[in-house]
Amino acid sequence: LHLLSRRQRQMCIRDRKWDVSEDGIVEITVENTGFYNTIAQKIFKKPRYSFIKLDEYGSFVWQKIDGKKSIYEIGKELQAVHEGAATQLYERLSQYFAILERNKYIVFEE
């Protein structure tokens, strides 16, 4: 039941900088903030920003997150464009969105 209700809820991307390359791959820019990141940047010369490239499916899904579409609607669009995405589609999408939410990339609307 929780999974079904989540499938029907809309989600939006939090305030993140992201770009789409010419080949359609999404790259998200993440600023490494906080006490430990500051120490790592100063002592170990770690970068202030990380760049995360999504795969083909992840890039497609990311670009469909608009605050209006539900997981179910995005899944239907993904299935229509990528035939290979049909296997365990909604279970995989639910897991993907759970990871995005846990890492504070998206927020589910109430």
Overall description:
With 110 residues, the protein is α+β, with helices and mostly antiparallel strands. The chain has five helices and five strands, in the order H-E-E-E-H-E-H-H-H-E. It has helices at 2-8, 35-43, 56-64, 71-81, 89-102; strands at residues 11-13, 17-20, 26-31, 49-53, 106-108. Strands 2-3-4 form a three-stranded antiparallel sheet, with helices on one face. The mean pLDDT is 89.
Fold topology:
Elements: H1 2-8, E1 11-13, E2 17-20, E3 26-31, H2 35-43, E4 49-53, H3 56-64, H4 71-81, H5 89-102, E5 106-108
Antiparallel strand pairs: 1-5, 2-3, 3-4
Helix pairs in contact: 4-5
Mean pLDDT value: 89
- What is the 3D shape? elongated
Radius of gyration: 16 Å
**Order of strands side by side in the largest beta sheet?**
2-3-4
Major β-sheet profile? 3 strands, antiparallel
How helix-rich are the residues, as a percent range? 40-55%
β-sheet strand percentage: 15-25%
* Pattern of helices and strands: HEEEHEHHHE
Judged by helices, strands and strand pairing, the structural class is: alpha+beta
Number of DSSP E strands: 5
- Unreliable runs: none
User: What is the count of DSSP helices, taking H or I runs of 4+ residues?
Assistant: 5
Distance between the termini: 16 Å
